[in-house]
Every structure is written in C-alpha cells, then in structure tokens.
Amino acid sequence: MSIDRPWLASYAPGVPHDVDVPDEPLTASLDRAAARHPARVAVDFLGATSTYAELADQVARGARALHDLGVRHGDRVAIALPNCTSHVVAFLAVLRLGAVVVEHNPTYGAAELRHQLADSGAGVAVVWEKTAAAVLEAAPGTALRTVVAVDLTRDLPRRSRALLRLPLPAARRARAAMRATVPASLPRWHRLVAAATPVPEEHPRPVADDLALVQFTGGTTGTPKGAALRHRNLVANTVQGQAWTGAAEGTETVYAALPFFHAFGLTLCLLYGLRIAATIVPFPRFDVDQVLAAQRRRPGTFLPAVPPMLDRLAAAAEADPRHDLSSFRFAFSGGMALPAEVAARWERVTGGLAVEGYGMTETAPVVLGGPLSADRRPGALGLPFPGTDVRVVDPQDPMRDVPAGATGELLVRGPQVFAGYWQRPDETAEQLLDGGWLRTGDLVRIDERGYVVLVDRIKEVIVTGGFKVYPSQVEDQLREMPGVRDVAVVGVPGGDLGEKVVAAVVLDDGVDSAHVDLAAVRAWCQQRIAGYAVPRALVVVPELPRSILGKILRRAVRDDVLASATA
C-alpha cells in the first residue's frame, strides 16, 4: 500500500526520514557506553553516582545473582521498584541473561499484582521493601518462588544514609517513607549482588528478536494484559528518539522523574539515556524540591515529563530566581495534552523547547513527536517518528481510509510496534491488522502539514496526571463496597491533572450518604487500586443511565456530572 507522507516536509532540519535499526539487544547500549565512556557518570541517584564502568560491573554481578536464583533465558522476572540505581541494575541484569522483565507499579496492592504475576508466570521478583507484603500476599497460586527485597536507602549516598539514622522526627519520617520490615527469610538484593562474581563474558547474550519486556496495559479495552516487546522494538524507539533529538553520544543529562514502570519513563528516561551514554538522574517520585536540588548539583539537559511537572518546575523557577533551569535544552511531554500556556511558560524560564508526543505501551512507546524547531505546534500530537507510518481509517471498517483531513481512527506501523499481547493471540489479532498496522483506538485528523491532531477517544480511558485509569477496574472494586448498589466512573477536566476521576454511585435502599461519602470511598479504594485511580470526587445519584441492552452510558454520566458542577 502506498502511503502519502506529508509530515516529512515538517521535520526539523537534520532529522532523517527513516532510521536503520541495528540488529542488537538493548544491553549493547550499556556495553558500548562502558567501553567508550567508562569514567562518565551513568546514574546519579540523589547524589550517589555510578560510572558506566561501575554500572556494567554491577549489572554483570546482578546477572550472576539472578542466575544463581535459577533465572534462565526466556524466564520472566518481576520488578516492582521506584526509580533508583537498583532498578537500573536489576532491569539490565535480567536482560543480560536473555530473560524477560515484567514491570509492576510498586504502589499496587495484592489484587492487582496477583493478576499480573499469574499472567506473566514470573518465578522471581525483585521488589521494594514497601511492596514486599503485597507481593507475598499475591504470590499463592502463581509461579512466583523467590521474592528479593530491595532496601532503597542502600542506593543513597553514605551521608544521606547516616542522616536517616539520626533520632530526629524528620529522619524517622524519611526512613519510614523508604523502608519497611520484611520477613528475614527474604534474600536481599544488595547482599546478593555484592557477593556475586560477574557473569562471564562468554555467557550467551540475548538477540534482537528475543522478548525483552512484558509491560501491562489496558490497551483499548481496559482489560489488563501484557504488551510483549522485543529487544528490536525498544532499540528501534531509542534510535528514533536519538534521530529526533539529534543528541550526541556522551553529552546529555537525562532527568528520570517519570517512573521506569511506565512505558514513557522506561524508554525516554532509561533506555534512550543508555543509548546516548547520558548521565541518568532518577527520582523515586516526582518532587519539585528534589528536582531543583538535583539541578543545582547536576544540571539537566533533557526532561521527559507530563505537563504538570513542567508547570510546577517552571512556577518554582519564576518564583525564585535562584532556581536556574536554563540548562534544559528540551522537554518532551506526553501522557496528556500539553497546554500552550504550559509550553510557553517552560520555554520562557529555560530558553529551551517543549514539545508534545504521543504513543502507547504497544509502540515502545513513542509514535509521534513535535519537531524540535520553530515549527512545533502546541495542541497537536506531533509528526510520525522516522520510519513510522500512520493512516486514518473508518473506525467501523479499519481497512478503509477516510478522505484527507477527515476524522478517523489512527493506525500506526513501524519497527517500534509490539509483537503482540502476552499469551493472548485473539486480542493480538484484534489490534494488529494485516500489514503490521496497529489500531490505537484514538480518533484523529491529519492536517496539510502532516501534524496529527487528537479529536476524541474511542475508548473511555481516563488520563490523570499522565496515568491511564480504566473505569471498569475502579467500578469493579466499588461494587464490592458495602452500601453501593451500582457505580459509574468517569473523567472530568481536572486542572493540571488533565482529568479527575469521579465516581457516580447508586446507594442500597436505606443507606445514608453520610456513610458512603468521599472519604469512605477513597479509603475503600486505596487498599485495592493504585493511588492515581482513586476517585477524587463523588456524586450520589438515584440511578444510572443505561442503553437498551443495559450497558451504563458513561458519556451521559459524564455530561450529567459536568452539568451539575456548572449549575
């Protein structure tokens, strides 16, 4: 099929139309960086640094430690950690053995983890101490046999560790935020790595077509399933990212404020950073003060982010001239729409550029990006990355393209598109069409310059703070709450969050709304779902609108919620 590519004329100067994807695994980036830039700082975690030579040694030792635990080629290994040096080491150590990483949100509860662990078949899990209890609760009935605990404070500089031991309230609070008591029987990650000898050079390495990652996503349906990404898919996206940014090897400092357990943060912060031999500055969570402290210590040049991050950092810089963000050459925003005023504010305080991007877990994840030039267009999703084709089709007949400029469903094709869903051939066949075209579930139009503009979402996913919330998952938990007869969960405009999660509930007969208020709903949900999915507002209604087939009409619920808010 011949594809018209009007977007090529809008590329920034120097960006190639296509890319050559090397026939290599992800671990080749670390090997190259350690050989060419051994003394360059690879990771700076809150002031504790590791050079590329040191990182390569730690990864080799971590690989041996995992091998001693029985991990072999093709095995799945679960990782549930905040961003930290241990996360980087564990991720690369798994890949070094030809095994497969399964990333998990470390704030998940046992119910969410149980499904994912059972689905992936992971036999070993490397987890944060504060996540260990939920993982152990979720383990029965799964293939999980070994849980390795990670003490996050062991990644800190020695001085910071010493301060945490002080008998002061602030030190106790900081220590409690990072540590938890775990069973003495659990092996400890740092001890295992320290005691291990490096895996030998001759140990077989993965190849480009090996599976590298199973990343859970709701796709376009909201049913959690693992997107299976090969080394080749992820390498392709890092090569495309380097072509887009024009980054020179060994020169950039990438701030990793986005979580590695999310596809956006994993590729743009960690894997892209390794590809260009950058110094990666990870944060366990986004905290303005922590980022500004790091900026004084090791100025950043590239910030992948969601819009609220850019807005809050820019506001801090505007409020206090001592906060200098001028080292940032560009920011790449995703996860939600980038407001023009946020982009302008960031560019005003940094002197750099802020562009928007678009992608999916199934595309490793970036498909579109705004050009790093004067032609960037706030409000547009961007232009297809080099080597990426897009089509706009009739959602009811995805084999039929709509006329130029018309609205339709976005299809994408490129070397970054995933191999399919883990052990779900039927759902893979629904999403991946003949010719390698992936259905995105988003309605868009392409203008005359090739910019893709989002019009609407076919799926009812809520995007809050850059995270996707699938209404059915929240509804399933709330229906179990005593006093709740029925529920619909929708997203409404939520300021810098993008959207706010709202629960509309129908109460059981005789139940007083004083007993099922927002605080009670939030308390119920916080034990069962991720924090970002917990409703931020509650509406009690006598009934929910339904279709003739009995399906809840979430759009009608959303319209009613918005109307009542403005009444």
TrEMBL record:
Record key words, sorted: Hydrolase
AMP-dependent synthetase/ligase domain: residues covered: 30-422
InterPro entries tied to this protein: AMP-bd_C, AMP-bd_C_sf, AMP-binding_CS, AMP-dep_synth/lig_dom, ANL_N_sf, ATP-dep_AMP-bd_enzyme, Peptidase_S8_Asp-AS
Coiled-coil segments: none
Recorded family membership: Belongs to the peptidase S8 family.
PANTHER family: LONG-CHAIN-FATTY-ACID--COA LIGASE, NONRIBOSOMAL PEPTIDE SYNTHASE PES1 (EUROFUNG)-RELATED
Name of the protein this chain belongs to: AMP-binding protein
